[in-house]
Amino acid sequence: MASNQALEIVQDGLDRHARATLSGDIDAMMAYSDIPCAIETLSGKVVAKNTSEMRAICEALVNSINAKQLSHMVRRCFEAEFNSEDTIWATYETRFIRNGVELAEDTYTSFIILKKRTDGWRFSSIQLLVSEGDPVSATLKNRFA
């Protein structure tokens, strides 16, 4: 499979997940989350081992974004490659916007692994280069073991 197809799969998932996150649609966010799902930042790593743990992370992320009054989450996939027929490795960037102004301090890049499951592609592992005040960092702060 060509890398263009991998990029399209990843970008579609990122776009749909961002829309779900901004609208607070936890069920739609969960539809893109694999179980287990590993999320890692420079501060540490957390693994959601079941749906209730993943749901709690999704809810905390929505609450963090709402608290910062963010109006847009823009994600752009830079590169994506099939590692196997059911695994995609990709890098992407996330930018946040509040009332038409980009919040440059909250921009971060990530490495993500998607796994193909019977019901579609899911985010299985994410490594994020986020700053301390970023909504993702705030979400995971109390979950690091």
Protein architecture, described:
The protein is α+β, with helices and mostly antiparallel strands. It is built from four helices and seven strands. Strands 1, 2, 3, 4, 5, 6 and 7 form a seven-stranded mixed sheet that branches. A hairpin with a 2-residue loop joins strand 3 and strand 4. It is globular and about 40 Å long. The N and C termini lie far apart (38 Å).
Keywords summarizing the entry:
single chain; 145 residues; 7-stranded mixed β-sheet; 4 helices
Secondary-structure map with pairings?
Layout: H1 3-23, H2 26-30, E1 33-41, E2 44-48, H3 51-67, E3 72-84, E4 87-98, E5 101-102, E6 108-117, E7 120-129, H4 135-140
Parallel strand pairs: 1-7
Antiparallel strand pairs: 1-2, 3-4, 4-5, 4-6, 6-7
Low-confidence stretches are none
Radius of gyration: 14 Å
> Major beta sheet, specifics?
7 strands, mixed
Output the helix-strand order.
HHEEHEEEEEH
Tell me, briefly, the overall form.
Answer: globular
DSSP helix count?
Answer: 4
Q: Can you give the helix content as a percent range?
A: 25-40%
Distance between the termini: 38 Å
Instruction: Work out the strand percent.
Output: 35-45%
Quaternary status: single chain
Mean pLDDT: 88
Instruction: Kindly name the structural category.
Output: alpha+beta
Number of strands: 7
